Amino acid sequence: MKSIFQINKIILIVLLSIGAVSTSSAALFDDWTDNQLCEWMDQAIPPAPINSQVMKRNITCSKGIAAVRIVKKVGEAANSYDGAYACILRTESAVGQESIGTAQFIIKDGKISIARKYRYLMTSAISSYDTFEGVIDKDGNIKASFELNPIMHMVEPKSIKFSGNMDSLQLRGRFDEIKSWDNNTKAYVLDENFYPSFYDVIIDFKKENY
Amino acid sequence: MKYNIHMKKICLVIALALFSIQAYAGSCPDGSDPVRSISADGTYFVYNCGNNNNEQKSSSTTSLITEINPVNHSGWEQLSNTMTGISSHNFQYLNDSTKSRRGNQYQRFELRDGDCGSFSDWDDCANDRQRVEFTASPLPPVGKQCMAFSIMLDDSFVTMDSSPTALGQIQQKGGPTGFMEGFKSQPGVLMFHAQEGYYDFDWLYLHGSRTDIKQTDLKFRLLSLDDMKGKWTDISFCLDFAKNNMSLWVDGKRKFDINQPPTGLHMPESIFFKYGIYQSFVSKHSGSTPTQIVYYDEIRRGSSVEEVDFNINPNLKAID
What we know:
- The structure holds 2 protein chains of 2 kinds.
- By secondary structure, chain A is an alpha+beta fold.
- In chain A, about 20% of the residues lie in helices and about 40% in strands.
- The N and C termini of chain A lie far apart (about 90 Å).
- Chain B has one domain (about 35-305): Jelly Rolls, CATH 2.60.120.200.
- Chain B has helices at about 1-25, 55-60, 305-310; strands at about 35-40, 45-50, 60-70, 80, 90-95, 105-110, 120, 120-125, 130-135, 145-155, 165-175, 180, 185, 190-195, 200-210, 210-225, 235-240, 245-250, 255-260, 270-280, 290-300.
- The termini of chain B are far apart.
- In chain B, strand 12 and strand 13 (about 185) form a beta hairpin.
- The interface of A and B includes residues 42 and 43 of A.
């Protein structure tokens, strides 16, 4: 009889410890529903940790209700929009907006690159523009990637994925999970307390007649 | 052994007596004790510090109001300010129906550089705080608790450099505890913060265990401080402990619904409302802190928004 009690006790302890471990390992906001997150998004500058979670879950919010973000698939590169486009780079974050550079897109046969002329970038080396690669399809949908550090801090540059289209004349990407320089270890380390926790990187562009 | 205990008792009595003298010392500018009387309308206590020279009494009389006995239809039982070291400029009742939100009376709070005092278990001066606030009687965290207040900032209102000023807050008693920046912390429930040009609803999202609680501040921006200068803004909100949600209205228009338990997963014994002016981390401000003047009116509580928000229910009687 006694041994049954002891076994029960052990089982109880094991179950409780499993519960404690699983609770403590859950990340902040993991137990929030999509709608619970979206309730905070109906304002100009939503709380950064909530915004970050919304992006991570790939949802959009409208009037406190969540919806799955629909990312348009970009088809084959097409030459419908070939030409030169002037562009301005800026960041948007919880601390405001910042212009960080200017450049010129060259679209040839639907492939986008950055011209060598007209390059200006405040936060990274000008040569970062060489890492820009983009594609535009016949409907004007664009996807691109660009490796840079978009902020005035010693943080690790990373490849940012951009999407956009010719209707909005805008590409948007996000710089998050920021790794800052640690002087002790002489390496970039993930800084969970980095504020703001993410920056939206925006490229506005317009057709130029060069 | 008995002698020692006896001596300790005597020392304790002397110390307590000295402490009580200290608590009153300085309450009046001339060092005398304030005299308590009831206001003309019987709704609050008035502590008068008068000059002994009767001829000058009217011009030199100052009033310290530390307790308000609100009218029954406000929903409050009592509002009090138990802080030591308050001055007559900190709080005044104003009678002017052309400037009040409704009715005749409204309340004026003023906080100047160096306006700090202490409570029985907390010293603002030693903890980098300044305040003048009235505290309402505690409420149980059950059912639906709704509150409302009208607020107007003086035209001269400016915020501190980087630290927030709380203009209204809900605190909790017997709730979870933790540590913040190395100091023991008993986090509140929510605050209305004036900071960086905006008036924010700041909910303290509490997570972790009851004795090692962590807080993440989640703000909902309500309006620009410039829009609150010389103009009344009506705030009402409900904390629903039965349905685990919070709703807020500005000027009778619903601003948000947040489906979260107001005090998180750890229930406190009670919650209580405070309003006035409360500055924290004042040393972060370079130089003297700015004098802040804020007006309040129509402070109510009830169990539904219709019981507290006169924009939604215009039949509510004015609070005077």
